[in-house]
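Might you be able to consider the sequence and fold that I enclose below?
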Amino acid sequence: MTLPNPLPREIAPGVFWLGDCLEQHHKGKIYHSYNAAFLVTGSKASLLVETGHPKDFPEIERQSREILAEGRAPLKHLFITHQETPHSGGLGRLLALYPDLTVHGDISDYHLAFPQYIDRLKNMEVGDVIDLGDRQLVAAEPVIRDLRTSLWGFDTGERVLFPGDGFAYSHYHWDGHCGKVAEEAKSLDLADVSAVFAERALFWTTFTDMTIYVDKLEEMLDNLDVAVVAPTHGLPILDLAVTVPKVRAGLLAAG
């Protein structure tokens, strides 16, 4: 039975979780994962983090339009963590739908696919800022990369980290995890699903000492004073003290 989509969901003031589940069938069961996007609304402008998977684009576009129609600042910016399809597959359609939209991140190769929009592609380096008025989106170091061009984002307003594939894991459809944050999914074996996702999607993690990376990751969380983690593939994390040690265990198991 197909259940109603529980998204969008506001996971911090002015930060909305968008998207829909991707079903994966395995041994007679249905496992779910997200290719999420996030809408960050500021006093002068709103920003979309990721475009979502192409299959989810109509849903993400509808969700964002409905949120923006509630009197929020117009959508002017798109930040993409990297070029892989689940993160950037809706890029061309967004550029066509929003004539004033600018695209930010490591924009390598985008000009080859969309030469007509080259003036709207804005390259970012770590530390660069997108101003939304009362909050900023700052480009952060991608501690765990999927591609060479990976870049993370940090919202200064509510201290939300957007790590792309940095906190990636699936969830259990039959236990009702869809649309829940990590701490609400009580039966989720987060260490196990984190390890499986890392092995399958970030295969390089099986050939390196992941202690180096998880230590650096925890250092970043402390230095930025991160309050919320909003991964593209996974349930948002609202209580870092509870959930980050489980993610750490999964990444170390993968390595």
